[in-house]
Amino acid sequence: MALYGYFLYNRRSDHRESLSKYLRKKIPLRSIIRQSILDKLNLDNTYYYPDGLPNALLNRMVHGYNYYTGEDFTKQNLSIAGPSGGIISTPKEVAYWVESLFNGKILSKNQMKEMLSLVSTETGHPVVATQTSTVPGYSLGLTEQYSKKLGEVWMYEGVSSGYTAGYFYVPKYETIISYTASIGSIKNNPIQFSKLSKEVLYVLGLEVN
User: Fold this and answer.
1) How far is CA 192 from CA 15, 198, 208, in A?
2) How far apart are CA 206 and CA 200, in angstroms?
3) DSSP 8-state class, residue 207
4) Which domains are assigned to the chain?
5) DSSP reduced 3-state for 150
6) Beta-bridge partners for 151
């Protein structure tokens, strides 16, 4: 959520956007994901099960644990995360998804323009680019920051109760770094970001407060 004068992230906005698309098309979200993403990109190890995970898939998964309590959340129904974290995948297929997304294979030109439209994470005001500022820009679930070495770097991190996943995309070098971790917390957890993503950001020549 971006309001003039300040910036605030709101997880509920992810759910509202997904719900609005579902209501307009009157098609179950699971079918939309299957048709528009999984089948279209031939993602054989990416799954969305809003009604609970089948045993065949659970038996293949690395167990996921809560960062604070150590509780095993592997069997948790991911419908609580919905569009902000309900899909199960591998780092390899996440990287393929990112490549397809940023190269116009998923969204229309107008949708791409909307996705890449940024607001300042400091003021909430729209920004054209972040080359002249150390403050990251934010769009629909994405953060963008400028590196003197690499140019634009787009990044995303998603967290559920037992898992963390994210990626970094560097258009100038056509490079994608994708990662997953079997530990997480449903809270917006800055410790997770500093432990994992910040190390990658440092290598990329970026700093995030």
Assistant:
1) 22, 9, 13
2) 9
3) -
4) 2-203 (3.40.710.10)
5) coil
6) 147
